[in-house]
Amino acid sequence: MEPDPDEAADAEDLEFKERRGEIRYRALKGGTLTFDDGRVALECVVRNLSANGARIAMGDTTSVPARFDLVISGDDRVRDAHVRWRAPTVIGVELDPPVPEEVKPDVGGSEEGSPAL
What we know:
By secondary structure, the chain is mainly beta. It has one helix and six strands; from the N terminus they run αββββββ. The longest helix is centred in the first third of the chain and has 13 residues. It is globular and about 30 Å long. 13% of the residues are buried.
């Protein structure tokens, strides 16, 4: 008995959907990806998003390297992104956990014991 081609296609779709560890949510957020030590910045649109991945749309993906930094509007944390798949105007990326914000020194001299100017 040969397998039904429709059942095989459904099984393949189910297998593909389950490769992601979590659900992605639709999004329409602006973003900026940077690479080459911050010397190159490209604008993009985040079309779907999860804690560990995103689908990013842009005019042309050919100039996007395999790794880059991503900042999504409304969330100013820098995320390290790795391209998992690529199409001419869309890329799918895996996101590393956000980089923790560094504690910046107070440049206003408001610490106790600071000399008064």
